[in-house]
Write a structure and sequence with these properties.
Helix content: 25-40%
Number of strands: 4
Order of helices and strands: HEHEHEHHHHE
Low-confidence stretches: none
Largest sheet: 4 strands, mixed
Strand content: 5-15%
Length: about 160
Amino acid sequence: MAGTEGIREFRPDIMVTHDAYGGLPGHPDHVHTHRVTMLAVQAAGLAQLYPDAGAPWQPHALYLATHPHSAVPALRAVIGARKAVYSVPDEQVTATVDVSPWIKQKIAAVLAHRSEVARGALPGLIAGLPPDARERLFGTEWYIRHTPMTAAAPRTRLTV
């Protein structure tokens, strides 16, 4: 089940996706995931779209996974200057989560991207780090809260 139909069936209050940059490395798959998620959330709230997919539903918030500018220097020491880094001003971050209790699972999930590890992309660089450096660099996650435009929101008529 995908997109609008899944959102309408499960009716989540909150959804999480990548930011518009596709996360720190700007991976094209992550950028696409962001775009598709944003469109699915909007479409799920519009009754006139996909009427056979169930009653309209829109989450109350989306959290966009991101990296603040202040986290970049420590990460640069690992990834080097040769790779692009996408980050946002610290004041745009609205939620910070300590994920260090789950760092082993997080790192295992990252390292499961075997082709990325093998070609030396960010997961490959993470694979070469000692465990304490992994926890220090990847034990925090940052998010920007995005409130979707609701289908019921009144429209403002613009006059020129």
